Recover the amino acids of this structure.
């Protein structure tokens, strides 16, 4: 993506701090503070490696914790859960985060993108971030706890005769809450904004935390750690350029929104008068928003019109990146969408594709990523029925196209000028509201901690442009004596393992990290006996 | 399940031998074998059948792996793991029927005894690999079913 990333809109106290990062287009030149002030001095800002004496001179207090996990979202949670089960006491781990609880960002994003607690998320039955074993699966638990035995039939017949089973968001959050209590999450959590990670002369790292003003005597505090785990999530959201241009020009953050922003007002408006909504993007979020509009239409007898514009329009089964259809590489598609149960083919989380990707390097890996990924959504029976009805009755229109520019017409409608393949010229489409469901992600340098690492720690990028990690999720180039930095989650997309930004992917990473730490003597290896005895503790809700 | 070819074969040999072995050991005395069959003969017969399911199964795994290539997700749905009981059962039954399994005389195993033995072993094995196995070995599911 060449366009410059943009800010995320208005600041709202209900939005988790991870979502409303300050992202100035050009980082301001930062002057160092005076020595002894408890803040970052010039010497610290400029040095790639810090000594204990430098921090002392700056007056920044130092705490020793062997392992620090930065982020505090689900990525941190799953990794720390593994380490606790591998026998690490809470005193040896600190989680630095501006989140109050691990699923805070996740719950915010799922809720605004139309997955409230009673709805089901796009995740597999055995992908349980609150249970490293994935047993009992969500389906089995739901069957026993709610007496919904039909869910067992569901997982038995998926995906041929039923849509993939997926758990309710509320069940996922409740499970996380129970597990957080069990492993003593709050004892490890330190609230604040992480500013940077720098190598320490003599081995290990310093992590600088800015606690909430007034909580500590100094502006910054430092953590001296042998191991650092980075799980900072998505660096930020990015808008389609023409949408951002329109927003900036007209100062309109109301009629043109991202699906990841609060946009309940649009559904409210649809209930007061007939409106036209334009959707952009063909992924899971577009499907969700579409479902909400169609559900409301049915429930309240509304007249909402929907125009859905796909940049890449998939009209039939296809072999991604191939000119012809190959039987061994065929993905389903129709009416604009590419269909896939989860965001990657299922076997990246453990089977054939995982094994294959583990061996690929450089451009070969980047190509394979393109083939497997791309925007897609699950084929769900209910969605198909709703969309078919909409097309039949003419209130749901789909089209391929890119938008050159947007303007306001005399009736106050937002007109998108769409270039569509096969059309002689641009088509003008008016709409009352536009919802950007493309979910573009910003570059990793948009995240301050990652940018600092790239600038000062010899960390590189992988073939897809994100952080370059080993198969063990060790960050390449960041080793410091016996110290290691690990990274998991969205920032490592493009590595030897593709499904990083998913529940199961975070567990795959956590297992690799825990095993690597066990080899380095930090924790115990989870063998058969430990696994069984720890599972029994999990089942009885006893501390690990 | 999300198997690799190596994982399929390892799971078939090691887990079927252990889980199938335990089930076979428990159920053999209760099978409707012909009158006069001694306990040692009965055990010999049922364990040879189990061995045959493992050996012939390696060929089946190659076929399943090939079939899986037509699936975009390269996965092996839970249902497939159960339904393949039918094709595999028929082949083993036919081998028994024609006396082609070394160590078991033609007609020594009544169809009813074979069905009870085979179906019970299969279902317990299938339930095991779709659940509790993930607790016994936390790496198994992320490495395509490999155990070594």
């Amino acid at each position: 993506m060449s366009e410059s990333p943009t800010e995320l809109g208005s600041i709202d106290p209900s939005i988790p701090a991870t979502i409303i990062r300050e992202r100035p287009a050009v980082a301001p030149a930062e002057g160092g503070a005076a020595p002894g002030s408890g803040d970052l001095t010039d010497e610290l800002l400029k040095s790639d490696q810090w000594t204990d004496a430098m921090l002392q001179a700056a007056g920044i207090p130092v705490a020793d914790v062997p392992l620090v996990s930065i982020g505090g979202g689900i990525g941190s949670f799953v990794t720390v859960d593994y380490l606790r089960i591998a026998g690490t006491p809470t005193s040896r781990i600190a989680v630095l985060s501006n989140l109050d609880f691990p699923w805070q960002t996740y719950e915010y994003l799922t809720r605004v993108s139309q997955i409230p607690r009673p709805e089901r998320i796009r995740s597999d039955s055995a992908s349980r971030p609150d249970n490293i074993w994935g047993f009992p699966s969500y389906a089995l638990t739901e069957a026993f706890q709610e007496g919904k035995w039909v869910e067992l039939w569901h997982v038995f017949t998926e995906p041929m005769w039923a849509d993939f089973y997926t758990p309710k968001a509320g069940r996922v959050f409740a499970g996380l809450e129970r597990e957080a209590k069990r492993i003593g999450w709050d004892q490890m959590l330190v609230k604040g904004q992480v500013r940077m990670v720098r190598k320490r002369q003599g081995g290990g790292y310093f992590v600088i935390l800015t606690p909430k003003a007034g909580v500590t005597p100094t502006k910054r505090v430092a953590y001296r750690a042998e191991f650092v785990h980075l799980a900072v999530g998505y660096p930020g959201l990015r808008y389609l350029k023409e949408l951002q241009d329109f927003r900036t020009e007209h100062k309109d953050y109301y009629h043109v929104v991202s699906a990841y922003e609060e946009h309940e007002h649009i559904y409210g408006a649809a209930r007061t008068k007939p409106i036209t909504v334009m959707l952009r993007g063909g992924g899971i979020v577009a499907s969700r928003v579409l479902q909400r509009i169609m559900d409301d239409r049915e429930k309240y007898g509304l007249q909402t019109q929907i125009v859905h514009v796909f940049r890449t329009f998939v009209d039939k089964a296809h072999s991604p990146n191939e000119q012809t259809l190959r039987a061994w590489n065929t993905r389903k598609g129709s009416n604009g969408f590419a269909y896939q149960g989860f965001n990657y083919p299922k076997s990246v989380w453990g089977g054939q594709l995982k094994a294959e990707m583990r061996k690929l390097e450089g451009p070969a890996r980047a190509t394979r990523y393109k083939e497997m990924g791309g925007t897609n959504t699950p084929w769900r029976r209910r969605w198909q029925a709703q969309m078919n009805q909409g097309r039949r009755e003419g209130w749901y229109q789909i089209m391929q196209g890119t938008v050159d520019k947007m303007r306001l017409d005399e009736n106050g409608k937002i007109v998108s000028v769409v270039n569509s393949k096969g059309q002689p010229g641009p088509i003008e489409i008016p709409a009352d509201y536009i919802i950007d469901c493309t979910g573009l992600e910003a570059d990793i340098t948009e995240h301050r901690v990652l940018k600092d690492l790239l600038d000062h720690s010899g960390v590189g990028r992988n073939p897809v442009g994100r952080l370059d990690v080993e198969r063990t999720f060790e960050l390449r180039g960041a080793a410091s004596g016996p110290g290691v930095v690990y990274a998991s989650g969205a920032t490592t997309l493009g590595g030897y393992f593709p499904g990083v930004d998913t529940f199961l992917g975070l567990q795959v990473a956590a297992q690799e990290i825990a095993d690597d730490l066990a080899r380095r003597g930090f924790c115990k290896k989870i063998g058969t006996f430990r696994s069984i005895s720890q599972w029994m503790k999990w089942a009885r809700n006893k501390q690990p | 399940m999300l198997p690799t070819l190596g994982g399929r074969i390892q799971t078939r040999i090691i887990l079927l031998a252990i889980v199938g072995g335990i089930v076979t050991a428990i159920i053999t005395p209760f099978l409707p074998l012909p009158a006069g069959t001694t306990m040692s003969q009965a055990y010999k017969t049922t364990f040879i059948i189990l061995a045959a399911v493992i050996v012939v199964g390696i060929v089946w795994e190659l076929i399943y792996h090939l079939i899986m290539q037509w699936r975009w997700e390269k996965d092996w749905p839970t249902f497939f793991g159960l339904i393949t009981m039918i094709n595999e059962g028929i082949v083993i039954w036919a081998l028994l029927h024609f006396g082609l399994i070394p160590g078991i005389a033609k007609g020594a195993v009544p169809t009813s005894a074979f069905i009870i033995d085979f179906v019970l072993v299969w279902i317990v094995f299938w339930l095991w690999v779709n659940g509790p196995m993930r607790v016994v070995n936390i790496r198994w599911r992320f490495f395509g079913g490999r155990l070594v």
